[in-house]
């Protein structure tokens, strides 16, 4: 019996982006991403390893070399629309959010379980790390072009910021490709169940 089960859900890729290594978090739209085991060549989050950041400060001093499970930032078009509505603005441009991939079609996308897989048409497979919590960096990018709007991002994005992921099997992703969702075949953690 497989430990990952295919769900009824799949998502269409509606936007792809490349965040250059030598810049901030703003992404450049692209038609295709070539994914290697290290992520996207030349991207800000490329690499098998990375320096630790504030997200794991309770484990390591900042800058400690750790495994890179944040190679990609994946967002949901539906959740981005909810963020924009909460910010009281029109559409939210994924460039500002450092997005690698924007998908459409999987409900409650930000909360799919860690270790889930998103598999593309040529078997390129992405492993979900976890929810990508909102931070101030996208707000700064938004604010640079839209005065008084950037500060609204972080509270509006709570629970809607998408996920981080890493490449389990390399391959190419293109606009319009579909990603099938596989989730771990296990019950939810219940630390106080008495079992």
Brief overview:
By secondary structure, the chain is mainly beta.
Structure description:
This protein is 13% helix and 35% strand. By secondary structure, the protein is mainly beta. The chain has one domain (4-184): Beta Barrel (M1 Pyruvate Kinase, Domain 3), CATH 2.40.33.20. Strands 1-8-7-11-10-9-13 form a 7-stranded mixed β-barrel. A hairpin with a 2-residue loop joins strand 3 and strand 4 (39-40). The longest helix is centred in the middle third of the chain and has 11 residues, at 77-87. It is globular and about 55 Å long. The relative contact order is 0.25.
CATH superfamily: PK beta-barrel domain-like
Distance between the termini: 23 Å
Structural class: mainly beta
Residue-averaged pLDDT? 93
Strand content: 25-35%
The low-confidence parts are: none
Number of domains: 1
Helicity level, as a percent range? Answer: 10-25%
Q: Largest beta sheet, briefly?
A: 7 strands, mixed, barrel
CATH fold field value: M1 Pyruvate Kinase, Domain 3
Strands, count: 13
Q: Order of helices and strands, N to C?
A: EEEEEEEHEEEHHEEE
Please tell me what the overall shape is.
globular
The number of helical runs is 3
CATH class placement: Mainly Beta
């Amino acid at each position: 019996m497989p430990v990952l089960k295919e769900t009824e859900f799949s998502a269409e890729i509606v936007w792809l982006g490349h965040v250059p290594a030598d810049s901030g978090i703003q992404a450049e739209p692209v038609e295709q991403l070539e994914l290697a085991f290290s992520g996207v060549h030349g991207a800000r989050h490329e690499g098998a390893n990375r320096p630790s950041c504030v997200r794991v400060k309770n484990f390591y001093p900042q800058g400690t070399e750790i495994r890179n499970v944040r190679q990609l930032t994946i967002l949901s078009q539906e959740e981005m629309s909810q963020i924009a509505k909460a910010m009281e603005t029109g559409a939210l441009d994924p460039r500002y959010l450092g997005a690698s991939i924007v998908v459409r079609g999987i409900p409650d996308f930000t909360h799919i379980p860690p270790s889930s897989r998103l598999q593309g048409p040529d078997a390129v497979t992405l492993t979900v790390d976890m929810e990508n919590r909102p931070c101030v960096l996208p707000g700064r990018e938004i604010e640079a072009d839209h005065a008084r709007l950037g500060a609204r991002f972080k509270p509006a994005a709570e629970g809607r910021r998408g996920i981080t992921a890493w490449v389990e099997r390399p391959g190419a992703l293109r606009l319009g490709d579909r990603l099938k969702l596989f989730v771990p075949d296990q019950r939810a953690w219940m630390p106080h169940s008495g079992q």
